[in-house]
Amino acid sequence: MSVPYLINSDQGHIPASQRIPTIAKPFVSERAKKTLDLVERFVEEECVPADAVFAQQIKEAGEAHEHNVAGRFESHPQVIEDLKKKAQELGLWNMFLPANHFKEGAGFSNLEYGLMAEYLGKSGVASEACNCAAPDTGNMEVFAKYGTQEQKDKWLKPLLKGEIRSAFLMTEPQVASSDATNIEMSMVKEGNEWVLNGQKWWSSGAGDKRCKIYIVMAKSDPNNSSKYKQQSVILVPADTPGVRIHRMLSVMGFDDAPHGHGHIYFDNVRVPESNMILGAGRGFEVVQGRLGPGRIHHAMRSIGAAEKAMEWFLARINDPAKKPFGETLSKHGIILERVAKSRIEIDSARLAVLNAAAKIDEGDAKAALKEIAEVKVEVPKMLMEVLDRAMQAYGGAGVSQDTPLAKMWSSGRTMRIVDGPDEVHMLQIGRNENKRGDNLRKKINAQQEKSKELYRKYGLKYEDPLQLNRISGGKSKL
Amino acid sequence: MSVPYLINSDQGHIPASQRIPTIAKPFVSERAKKTLDLVERFVEEECVPADAVFAQQIKEAGEAHEHNVAGRFESHPQVIEDLKKKAQELGLWNMFLPANHFKEGAGFSNLEYGLMAEYLGKSGVASEACNCAAPDTGNMEVFAKYGTQEQKDKWLKPLLKGEIRSAFLMTEPQVASSDATNIEMSMVKEGNEWVLNGQKWWSSGAGDKRCKIYIVMAKSDPNNSSKYKQQSVILVPADTPGVRIHRMLSVMGFDDAPHGHGHIYFDNVRVPESNMILGAGRGFEVVQGRLGPGRIHHAMRSIGAAEKAMEWFLARINDPAKKPFGETLSKHGIILERVAKSRIEIDSARLAVLNAAAKIDEGDAKAALKEIAEVKVEVPKMLMEVLDRAMQAYGGAGVSQDTPLAKMWSSGRTMRIVDGPDEVHMLQIGRNENKRGDNLRKKINAQQEKSKELYRKYGLKYEDPLQLNRISGGKSKL
Amino acid sequence: MSVPYLINSDQGHIPASQRIPTIAKPFVSERAKKTLDLVERFVEEECVPADAVFAQQIKEAGEAHEHNVAGRFESHPQVIEDLKKKAQELGLWNMFLPANHFKEGAGFSNLEYGLMAEYLGKSGVASEACNCAAPDTGNMEVFAKYGTQEQKDKWLKPLLKGEIRSAFLMTEPQVASSDATNIEMSMVKEGNEWVLNGQKWWSSGAGDKRCKIYIVMAKSDPNNSSKYKQQSVILVPADTPGVRIHRMLSVMGFDDAPHGHGHIYFDNVRVPESNMILGAGRGFEVVQGRLGPGRIHHAMRSIGAAEKAMEWFLARINDPAKKPFGETLSKHGIILERVAKSRIEIDSARLAVLNAAAKIDEGDAKAALKEIAEVKVEVPKMLMEVLDRAMQAYGGAGVSQDTPLAKMWSSGRTMRIVDGPDEVHMLQIGRNENKRGDNLRKKINAQQEKSKELYRKYGLKYEDPLQLNRISGGKSKL
Amino acid sequence: MSVPYLINSDQGHIPASQRIPTIAKPFVSERAKKTLDLVERFVEEECVPADAVFAQQIKEAGEAHEHNVAGRFESHPQVIEDLKKKAQELGLWNMFLPANHFKEGAGFSNLEYGLMAEYLGKSGVASEACNCAAPDTGNMEVFAKYGTQEQKDKWLKPLLKGEIRSAFLMTEPQVASSDATNIEMSMVKEGNEWVLNGQKWWSSGAGDKRCKIYIVMAKSDPNNSSKYKQQSVILVPADTPGVRIHRMLSVMGFDDAPHGHGHIYFDNVRVPESNMILGAGRGFEVVQGRLGPGRIHHAMRSIGAAEKAMEWFLARINDPAKKPFGETLSKHGIILERVAKSRIEIDSARLAVLNAAAKIDEGDAKAALKEIAEVKVEVPKMLMEVLDRAMQAYGGAGVSQDTPLAKMWSSGRTMRIVDGPDEVHMLQIGRNENKRGDNLRKKINAQQEKSKELYRKYGLKYEDPLQLNRISGGKSKL
C-alpha cells in the first residue's frame, strides 16, 4: 500500500486525521491519527472495492450449490481472508478494545476508535477485515471482562485472532424481547450440566459456518423474587447436540449471507457447568456490561454509512449524464437543500457520538448512559433520512442492487430495533430527565418569590399570585 | 451573593462547570469555569427574577404616559441598571469579546463565552446586564476591529462601559435584503460630508432612548462593476437631523420595548467623512467581519432558551395540581417521548455550537463558515420544537403572558430570519458540499475499476459494466 | 354590491361555487351556491378591507383612553356594525345553524355552511359580521337545543339578532381542564338561588362590553358517584354582582381586543334557579351537545385561513421588487416545493372537513365523532405549516404587523389547544381504532390457517407454525 | 363462496359498502356496492391466504431449478390461475376500465373502482387475480384508446381475458428518465420496418414468461424541433429477435419474481410499421393518455396497503403474548398516538384519492391533473409512515419475512419514484399554483386601497403607505 492510488486520484483529498472536528482533537493521539489515516486508505482502496466481490462470491457459491440458500451460507469468500491478512500487516486489528479497560486490543480510546469505526462503516467487509465486527466485538469484551482463564483460552484467543466467529443469543420470537425480563428459554441444572430448551432468533452471525460459539441468555431461576436475577448467560458451542438452525431471517429481502440472522431451536442442549459466565443468576450483569462501549459501535459506523450515502448522493447529482429538465440535479435548489440538511445532521450526530465516546473514556459506560441512549436514537434516524434523500436522487437505481444504498437502508433500519428499540431508549431518557421536575418547580417558585420582593422594592403593582400557585400546584385563594 | 439561596434550594444542583460536555472540557480554563458558575448563579438568582419586574416597569411606564406606546419606549427600567452594577461587581462584564482578537474584553475564548452565553439566554435581561447584548456586541467588535482611534474614543468606550447602546442598520423594507447587494439607501459625497437618503427597518435596539449611534450600510458607489464594492458602512449618531423613527415593528404581537425594532427614515442625513468605517466601498468587508463570532451568539443563547423551555416543561408535567385523566402529564408516555426528543436535540445542538466556537477559536470565523452556518440553521429549528412541546403541555398558559414561552417563541422564530434566513445558509452549505461531487464521482469510479480487477483475480463472472458508466455519466456501449 | 370591483379586478377569477371539490358537489343546493358566491364577494370586498380598519379603530380607542388597555376593550369599532347591516341586507346571517336541527338559522346544511365558513376564515371580522362568530354560535346552539322559552326569549333572540354577545366559561387556571371532570368552581343551592364561587379563564369574548351573558360550568354535586354528573351548566349575566374580570390574557403578545380572553373571578355570585340549563347534574350533557357541529367551525375557517396564507405567500414570491440573488422567490425550487406541499395539505384537509360535515348532516355529531376528531387534529397542524412557510418567505414582514400572518399564526396555534388539546383527541381516536385489535388478530389467524390448508392442497412444504402462534400470542411448541 | 367464514369470524364486521366515506356515497351505484362487498370477501378470504402460497410456490420453483434465480422467474404459481377462475366466476374481472370511456370493462366509474382497488391493494395476488394488475391495466387502456383493430385483436383481447401479460418500456438507465425527453433508445425506419437499438430498465412485469408484448417508447425523430415530438410508441413482441433480458433488478433485496423488473437490451430489433401506436412522433400523446386513470390505481391500492399495515399494527399491539414492561403495546400512549396519526392520515388520503377519481369521472384525466398529482405525492408518503410505525411495533419481525410489512414497504417506496418522482409532481403543482401570483397581488393591493378609503371614511389616521408598496413591488417615496 505504498502508493495510494484511489485517494490520490481524489485530488485535494484531505486525510481523515486533518478532518477531525476541532472539539475532538485534544482527545486524539498522534498514533491514533496515523492509524486513522491508514484505516481510511485501507477502507477506500481495499475494502470498498472488495464489497462487490464479496457479494459476487456469495452469489456464485449459492448458484453452484444444489440448495441455493444453503450454498450462500456455507461459502466463505476468499476476499475477506485476504483482506484480514492485509489488515494485520498494516496493524489494523482489534482497534475496538478500549485501552483503559483491556490490554488485549490495539490500545486506543473509544473516541479514537470511534473516528476509525466511521470509516469501517463505509464498507460491508471492513469491520470483519479488521476484526472489529459485531457481534464478535461485544462478545470478545464479555470474554475479556468476565471469562475464566479456560474460557479465554478456548474462545477469546481464536476470536482475537479472527480464526472463529461468535453469536449472542438473546431475543426470542414468542415474547416481547425488547424487555429482556420476558425471555423464556429454560436452563435447568442436571448434575454438573445445564440443559437448555427453547428458541432464539435474530441470532446474528449464526449463519456463518465459522461461527463456533454462542453466548446464550436463558432463564435459570424463574422463581427468583427479583426478575433481574432469573437469568444466566452461558456458553454453548454451535455444534452442541440439540442445537438446530431452524431457518435464516431476512431483512427487507436481504439474507445478509453468510453472516445472516438465525432462528435457532434448542432441544435438550447440554453444556457443562464450567460454561457459565460470571455465575448463575448474573445474566443481566453480563448483558449490561456487554452493552457498554459495544452499544455505540453501531452509531460510529452509521456516521460512516451516512457519509458514504452522501458521497453517492453528491456523485449522482453532479453526473453530467443525468440532466432532468436540462440541468444536473445539483442545480436544483431542493436537492441542494437536502444536501445541506444531510450535512448538518451528519455533523451534529458525529459530535454526539464522539462526546458519548469521550464520556465512556472519562469514566465508564455506566456514567455515559444518557449520552449512549441519545446517540442510539439520534444516529439511525439521521442515517435513514440521509439515505432516503440519496435514494430518491437515484430514482430506480437507488432501490436496486446498483448502488449500495438499498442494502445500507436495510441494515440502518434495523438499528432502530437492535439493542432495544428506540422507544425503550426514549423512555429511559425521558424518565431520567423527568427526575429533575420537582426541583425545577421549586426553583421556579423561588424565582417567582424573588420577583415578588422586587415588585415591592421598586414600588410596582403586584397583580396576581396566580402564576406561582399554578406552577406549584396550589389552589388560588380569592 | 455570598449565600446562594435559589440554586441551593434546588437540592442536588450540580454547578454549570461540572456539567460541561466531556468533549468540551479541554477547552475551558479554570478561570472560565469559575466565571461560568458565577454567571449561572447571577442569571438564576438575579436576572430571571428581574425579568417579570422589567416587564412590569415597562408596562407601568406605558400606562403612565399619555401615549402608551411612546411611554413604553421612553422608559428605562431601573432594575436593569441595578443588575448592571451588580454584574460589574461580580466581574461579569463584556465576556463576549474573544481573547484571541481583542484586549478590551474579559479574556475568554469563544467556546468559554459560549458556555456562559447559554445561561444568559435563560433570561431576557441577563445579556444586557452583563453588557453582552446584541446588537451592541457585534457593533463593539466593529469598532474594536475597524474603528479609528477617534471613533473608538467616542463610541466604543461608552459602549464597553454600558453607558450607551447602538444599532446596526442594514435591512430595508422595499427590497429582498436577504441578499444584501439589494440594499438601496443612497449615500452621496458632498464636500467632506456624506448625505444619506432612504429607509431601514428591523433596526433592533433603535427604540431605546439610550441608543445613541447607528452603524449604517448604504450604497455609496451604485455603479461599481463589482456589486460587492458598491456599499459603505458609516456611523450616524441617532440624533442627526433628518433621522426619523417612523414606527416600531412588532414580532408576533410583542413590541419588545424599550429595545424594539425600528423602521427609520433618512431624509438628507449628513455626517462627516470621518464617520466612515474602514473606507468607502468596503461595506461588505465590515459586514463580513461583524458576522464572525457574533453570528453564533444567538445560537449560544438559544441553547439556554431551550434549556429554560425544558425546565418549564418539566415543572409543568410534574405539577401535582394538573392531572388530566388522573395522572400528572409526566406519567403519559407521549409526554416523556417529547421530553426525550427535546433532550436529544438540545444536547446535540449544544455540541454543534461549541464545536463551531472551538473552530473560530482555532483560527477565525472565516475558517468556521461551515460550522457557523450549520449552527445557524440547526439551533433555531431545535429551539422552536422544544418550545412548541413545552407550550402544548401548558395548554392556554403556554401561549399567554403567564409563562415565558410565548415571548421566547416569538424571539426564537426571528432567529430563522435574522442574519440571513435559513434558506440562504442552507444554500451556502449545499453549494459548498456540492463542490466535492466531481472528485467523489472519480473516486467511486476508481473503486469500481478496482472491483473489476478483483473479479478477474478471483475468477468471478463480471456481469455488467453499466453501473460504472452510469455513475461516471458515460453511455452504455452494447 | 352591484358592481364587484375587487374580484373582477382579479381577472379570470372563478367564483367559489365553481371551485367546490367534485366529490362535495352533490351535497350543495343551488341556493347554497348562490349564497356561497355572495359570501366570497362580501368577505373579499368588504370584510378583508375592514380588517385593518377594525384594528386601527381599536388602537385609536386605546390611545384616546386614559388606561390604554381598558380603552382597547371598551371600544366597539363602528365598522363592524356597518358590516353587520350590510350582511343582513345580503341575507348573510346566521348561516351556521344547521337546517336539519334548527329552524332559527338560514337553512343550510353543515357541509354547505362549511364551504361558506372557509371564506369567513379569511377575515378577522367576517364571522361576526354574519353573526357566525364563536363562541356565540355554540352558545346559540345551546339555547336553541336546551333553553327554556324564557331563556330563549331573553338571550337567544338578541343573540340571533346580533344585539348582544356571549361567553362560555369552562376552563380554570388551577386545574388540568383538558379533562373537564377536574373543574372546581363551586355551585351551591341556597333557597331558590345558586351561589357560585371560583375562577375561570380563557373566557373568550368576555372582554367585549357587549358580552351580556355567560354560560358557566360549575360543580353542583361534588360527591356524586359518577364524575360525569357532578357538574351543571348555568346562566350568569355578565353584570351579576360578584363577577369580576380579573385580567385579560394575551395570545403570543396579542390581546385580541375587544373580544379578548378573560380571567374572571366569581365571588358569591347568585343567580336564580331558573337560570339552570337542562337541569342540575346535566352539565356534561350540555357540553357534549354544544360540541356538535360547533367543533368543526374552527376547522372550516382554518381552511380559509390557510388559503389566505397561501394567497399572501404567492403574492410575495412573485413580487418583482423582491429578488434575492437575482430572481423572484417563485423561481427558487425550494419555494415552489413549499407551495406544492401547502396546496396538497390544504386540499386534503378541506376534504376531511367537508366529509366530517357531511357525516354530521347524515346523522348527528355523535355519529361523526371520529371524523370530527380527525379534523380537529389535522387542520390546525396543516394551518401552522402553511403559515410558517408563508411567514418565512416574507422574512421580517412575516412576523410583524405588516402582514396578517403573525396574527393568524397566533390564533391558529390556539386551535391545537381549544376544545381539548390535540393529545386528547389523538388518544380518543387511538383507543377507538384499537378496539378492532382482537378481531383483526382473529382474522389474520384465520387467514393463516387458510394458507396452511392451501399449502397442503398444492403440496408445498409447510415450514413453520411460528408465525401464526406469534400473532395469536400462543407459545411455540417444539 | 356461499358461507364466508373469515369475515364472519370477525364478529361485528361491517361490510365495505357500509363504510364508504359519507361524502363519496352519492357516487356509488347499488351494483358497485354489491361488487365492492364481493371484492372485499374475495380478497380477505381467498387472496390474502393465497399470498403466502404464491411466495412458497415461487420459492420451491427456484430451489428445484438448476439456476435458482431463473427458476423463480420461469415458474408460474398455479394458485394464481385458480384465483383468476374464481374471480371470473364471481364477476370480479376488469373492473378497472372506466365505464365512461371504455365498453370493454366491467362498467364502473373510476371512483367505484377506486373503492374496490383499495381492497385489491391488501393482497399481493388480488390485482392479477381480477385482471386489474399494473402494468397491464394501463397497457390495455392504451390498446383500447389508441390501438388499431388488428392490434386490439392480437393483444387487447388476450390481455382482457388474462391469457397473456404485457410490459411498458420507457425508463433507461443511462439518462435521467424522470424527464422523458431524455430517453435515447433509437428507432430508425428501414423499409416498412422500424429498427430499435438501446436499452430499457425497470421494465416491470417483463420477468414473467407469460409477458408477451412490450409497449416501447423510443426516439424516432431526434432532430425534430419540438422535443415532445421526437418520440414514438411502438409494439415489440417479447420474442422478437434482438430483444434480450440482460438481468432482473431487485427492490430493496426483493426480486419480485416472477413479475420482476427487467433490464433489457435491444440489438437491432425489427418490428413492422403496423406495430406503431397512434403514429410516429406521437409518443408523448400516448404516454399522457396512458397516465390518465392509470396513474391513480397505485394510489387506490396504496390506501388498502396502508389499511392492511394498520391491521397488522393493531393485531400486534394487542397481542397478549407481547408485553414489554408488563403491558401490551396498546396500553402505551405513544403507540396509540401512532395509531391515531395513521388513522387520520389514511382517512384524509383516501378522500383525496376518491375526489381525484370523481374529478376524472366528471371530465377526464386532463381536467384532474392537479388532483392526480396531489394524490401521487401524498399517498406514498402516508403509506411509508404508516408502514414504518407498524414495522417498528413488530421489532425484528417487522423487517423480516414473517410479516407482509417489509415487502409492502419495498413496493411502497418505489411509488415515490415510478410514474415520475415526487419532485416532478411537486414542481408541476407548485408552478401551476404559482400562476395565481400576479392576480393575487393585484387583489391584495385592491383590498388595501379599499382599506385606505375606509380609513378616510371613519376618520382614522392613515399611518403608512409602505405595506401597499411593498406588496406591489413599488418603491417607497419619502
TrEMBL record, chains A, B, C, D:
Q: Which UniProt keywords apply?
A: FAD, Flavoprotein, Oxidoreductase
Domain Acyl-CoA oxidase/dehydrogenase middle, residue spans = 167-269
What domain of life is recorded for the organism? Eukaryota
In the record, biological process GO terms are: fatty acid beta-oxidation using acyl-CoA dehydrogenase
Q: Where is the Acyl-CoA dehydrogenase/oxidase C-terminal domain?
A: 281-432
* Cofactors (names): FAD
Give the matching InterPro entries.
Acyl-CoA_dehydrogenase, Acyl-CoA_Oxase/DH_mid-dom, Acyl-CoA_Oxase/DH_mid-dom_sf, AcylCo_DH-like_C, AcylCo_DH/oxidase_C, AcylCoA_DH/ox_N, AcylCoA_DH/ox_N_sf, AcylCoA_DH/oxidase_NM_dom_sf
Q: Which residues form the Acyl-CoA dehydrogenase/oxidase N-terminal domain?
A: 36-163
Q: Name one GO cellular component term.
A: cytoplasm
Q: Which GO terms describe its molecular function?
A: acyl-CoA dehydrogenase activity; flavin adenine dinucleotide binding
Q: Which Pfam families match?
A: Acyl-CoA_dh_1 (PF00441), Acyl-CoA_dh_M (PF02770), Acyl-CoA_dh_N (PF02771)
Q: Which family does it belong to?
A: Belongs to the acyl-CoA dehydrogenase family.
Q: What is this protein called?
A: Acyl-CoA dehydrogenase
